[in-house]
Structures are given as C-alpha cells and as structure tokens.
Design goal:
The chain folds into 2 domains: about 80 residues, no CATH class; about 170 residues, no CATH class. Helix content is about 35%, strand content about 25%. The protein contains 7 helices and 9 strands, in the order βαββαβββααβααββα. β8 and β9 form a beta hairpin. The termini are far apart.
Amino acid sequence: MSSILSCSMPQPYSLMGLPRELRDMVYTNVFSFANSTSESTTRQHTLDCGAEFPTIIHLSTISFDWLDLMRTNGLVADEMRQIYRLPSYHNTTADQTWSAQLILNNDEYTLAWTSLPCPSSCVRHLSIDFKINLTLSMFGHWDNDSKDKPSNIFKALLELMNQVACHGPNITVSETLHQPIVFETISLNISFADEDKPYLMSSGPESVYILAYGKRRIYSRLIEDVITACGSRLLEEKVRHISIQGPKSLGSQKTDITIAQTERQDKES
C-alpha cells in the first residue's frame, strides 16, 4: 500500500531542505525498520517540495528506527517526523524519558545513553545516573572551589544539560535543534564510584571519615548550586522540576526542586 503526499503551501519543515543523501533515502525508502508498519492504513500528507506548481509524490509507507537515526542526526530525525506528520505515540512518562549514565572523573565527564525511546520533539523527561569518581586527592580539588561560584560538578552537569537541550542526544556534532528542549523533569540519581568497588578505596578510619565528609559536602553543594541557579533564572528555560536522589552511603535522601515560572506567566497574561 502507498501513501499519497501532495504539495500545497510551503511548510516550515521542507523535504527540499534535507541533505541530498537524506532526500534520496526518502525517495527510495531506504530506512531501517524498528517495527513493522501496517499495510492496511494510508494517509494523505501535505509536503512542501519547493516547487511553484502542484506536485504529487507517491511514497511507500515507512517506519523509522528513531534510536539509530537520533544517534546519527537528531535534527534530521525531528524533521522527518514533521515532514511525514507522524503523530506522537509517546504519551506515557516512560516513553517520553531519555535515560543516560553520566560518569564524572575529576573535571571530565563521559555520557552513555541507555534509553532514547522518542525524538527530541516529544521528549519531556531526562533521567541521569550521575556517578562521581571521588578520591581523596580529587575531593581536595573540588572542595577548594570558590564559594561564590558554582562547583565544578554543577558546571559539568549544566554544560551537559545545555548541550542536550540544544543539540539532542548527539552532543558530539554541531547540529542545533529547531526548538531547544524544555524538560518537565530532570531526575538525578547521585552515586559514588567507591560504592560499587569499595575494595579499591583506602580502608583506614581517617580515609573513611574524610571520604564520608567529602560526599556530604559534594552532595550538599550540588543541591545548593541547583537552588542558586533556580533563583538566578539560570535553569528557567531548561527545566520545570528537578529531583535529586542521594547516594546510599548518605541515607538515600531525596530533594525535589520546582522552578517558579511566575514572571513568564505574568508576561503571557
């Protein structure tokens, strides 16, 4: 069964605006299949082909492997969804959540995505397993941060949030989404590397005390930095609600922060 796409008024998302290779893939329907597409359903879409005269294009029904396409080019994944007028089936919180593991080692971090079930135009929630590789030497470095500036841990987290919101999951390229992502919730599950591999850490009573003290300082400082950023409107355009789950070694306490949107609502009204 085929779908009929007809050209009328230009649309903000244009087939002709895609790279040549992507247009060729559209014409020949060369896409990987995540799920089988029902052949009993056809739809008529409006497609901007950039032509002065009415144009009708017949394309076979296709489905996208969103996970593969977003990792390759998140911007194109969203454009393809708009071009085909694909409805969003991502209605539950689980379907609208991107999940990743963030490992912070000194001042450098690595990010590995564990779940990307929907394109960036549908995502509403971000869940990060934030693992901090804390050692005695690095705690001394982090703890000496200037008290009137955000900590290095928060700056690394903020940089990551900015990149994901503006560029989607593929943060290693320079593509920019048409609309930056505003997350409804960001959930941070904080843990420390020594909790998984305690045999790698010093077992002396002094070391244990210093590490426990360092963890409390780092965790409390992170919460304080988030609250300060909310008060200075640094996160106002990025997220509505932040949930921070503490590590087991500190009693697994949980902190929920809701960012006020009063000024924006006043302006809109």
